[in-house]
Amino acid sequence: MLDKLKKVKEALQNEIEAAATLKDAEQLKIKYLGRKGAINDLMKLIPTLPAEQRATFGQQINSFKIDITDIINEAFKKLSSESIPKVKKEIFDVTLPGKRPFIGKMHPVTRTIEDIKEVFARLGFDVAYGPEVELEYYNFEALNIPPDHPSRTDFDTFYIKNDILLRSQTSTVQIRIMENQKPPIRIIAPGRVYRPDTVDARHSFMFHQVEGLLVDEGVSFSDLKGVLNQFIKTYFGKDVQMRFRPSFFPFTEPSAEVDISCSICSGKGCSVCSYSGWVEILGAGMVNPNVFKSVHYDPEKYTGFAFGMGVERIAMLKHGIDDIRLFYENNIHFLSQF
Ligand code: DAH
Question: Percent of the chain, pLDDT > 70?
Answer without folding.
Answer: 98
